[in-house]
Design a protein that fits this description.
elongated; about 160 residues; six-stranded mixed sheet
Length: about 160
C-alpha cells in the first residue's frame, strides 16, 4: 500500500557547530537522500539546504537548524520524505507489507516480511503455505501498490514446506 510518508533514515549525530546532522539512511545507499528538497522530522517540514554523502551516511543541513544544540535536539529522530517526491518506480519495504500476492491469477497469501540477503531481497509470503520469493524480475512479474497486489512466478523450492 502506498504511504504518504516514507521513513528514509535516522539522525544519529551532529556534525560541526552549524547545525549539520549525520543521517544513517535506510535506503540501498546514501545517494538516495541527496536529491530531496524537503524532509519531515517529527511531523515538521524542513527545507533541505544541503545534503551530501559521507561514507555510508548523509550530512544534512536544514533551514532553521543553525546550531549544534538545535541539531542535537533532533538526534534519534526519523527523517521522512514525501512519497510524491520519491521516484515513481521506487518501492519501500514498508509499502510491501500486507500486499496480496498472486501466482497465475490465484492468491497465495500476503507479504509478511522482506529479508535482506547479500544477493537480493527475499519476500516472505504467508497464506495457506509460506513462500520465500527472491525479489528479482524473473520471479516478481509486477507490483501495483495502488491495487495492493503483486504477481509472481513460482518455481519448485519457493514453498517452505516442500520436500
Amino acid at each position: 500500500m502506498k504511504m504518504e510518508f516514507l521513513e528514509a533514515g535516522e539522525i544519529v549525530s551532529t556534525h560541526g557547530v552549524c547545525g549539520e546532522m549525520k543521517v544513517l539512511p535506510w535506503a540501498d545507499g546514501p545517494d538516495f537522500l541527496v536529491d530531496f528538497k524537503r524532509v519531515r522530522i517529527s511531523g515538521t517540514e524542513y527545507k533541505v539546504l544541503s545534503c551530501r554523502i559521507q561514507k555510508t551516511c548523509n550530512l544534512l543541513k536544514l533551514q532553521g537548524i543553525d546550531t549544534m544544540d538545535a541539531a542535537q535536539a533532533l538526534r534519534g529522530k526519523m527523517v521522512e520524505v514525501w512519497r510524491e517526491d520519491a521516484p515513481k518506480d521506487l518501492i519501500f519495504v514498508a509499502e510491501l507489507i500486507g500486499v496480496e500476492v498472486f501466482s497465475k491469477g490465484q492468491s497465495i497469501g500476503k507479504v509478511t516480511d522482506v529479508l535482506d540477503y547479500p544477493g537480493n531481497k527475499v519476500y516472505v509470503v504467508e497464506g495457506e503455505h509460506t513462500y520465500m520469493i527472491p525479489a528479482v524480475k524473473a520471479y516478481v512479474l509486477s507490483t501495483d501498490l495502488d491495487a495492493n497486489t503483486m504477481e509472481v512466478e513460482l518455481i519448485e523450492g519457493m514453498r517452505t514446506d516442500e520436500n
